[in-house]
Amino acid sequence: MSVEVFFKQALGLAEPWVVTECDFDPGAKKLVIKIDFERGARFADPESGEPCAVHDTRTRQWEHLKFFEHRTLLEARVPRILGYYQNYTTSSALEAVNGLLQLAKRRARGYRRFENFRAIAYWIAGKLTLRRPASATH
């Protein structure tokens, strides 16, 4: 059994994930396990569950439990999927809300309490209309 197969089983990785390389440095007491996925692999869209192609990747690194007193790092290419062409979903609604919150942040500048920011955010995002009292009653 190769070292890569051993670590794939030890980490409980399923297809399409594979361990591509293990870099062990006894002087630095460090073990780096590099994880990748098979070319052409498809990943589920978090919203619809439909399998989608990989748009691009980002290399990420996490610290794992120590391996016999050696610092262990997992390094993986994390896929980013492009679900629009599969099920025509976009993040436009989220971007619109983010724009409204940024506007609220600019308008709430100078307020010291979070409650004031939240009130302005609800006012802007919720399109609330605030009524003024007609006149004093006394």
> How many separate structural domains?
2
Query: Which percent range describes the beta-strand content?
Result: 25-35%
Report the total helices: 4
Name the poorly predicted regions.
none
Biggest sheet strand line-up: 1-2-6-5
Q: Taking all residues together, what is the mean pLDDT? A: 77
User: What profile does the largest beta sheet have?
Assistant: 4 strands, mixed
The total of beta strands comes to 6
Shape: elongated
Which range best describes the helical content: under 10%, 10-25%, 25-40%, 40-55%, 55-70% or over 70%? 25-40%
Write the H/E string, N to C.
HEEEEEEHHH
Describe this structure in words.
- The protein is α+β, with helices and mostly antiparallel strands and 138 residues long.
- The protein folds into 2 domains: 3-87, no CATH class; 92-125, no CATH class.
- The protein has helices spanning 3-11, 84-87, 92-107, 114-125, and strands at residues 17-25, 30-37, 43-44, 51-52, 54-67, 70-81.
- It has a 4-stranded mixed sheet with strand order 1-2-6-5.
- Helix 3 (92-107) crosses helix 4 (114-125).
- It is elongated.
Characteristic key phrases:
single chain; 138 residues; alpha+beta; 2 domains; four-stranded mixed β-sheet; two-stranded antiparallel sheet
Give a short overview.
The protein has 138 residues and is an alpha+beta fold.
List the helices and strands and how they pair.
Layout: H1 3-11, E1 17-25, E2 30-37, E3 43-44, E4 51-52, E5 54-67, E6 70-81, H2 84-87, H3 92-107, H4 114-125
Protein name: Transposase
Organism: Haloferula luteola
Domain Transposase IS204/IS1001/IS1096/IS1165 DDE: 71-120
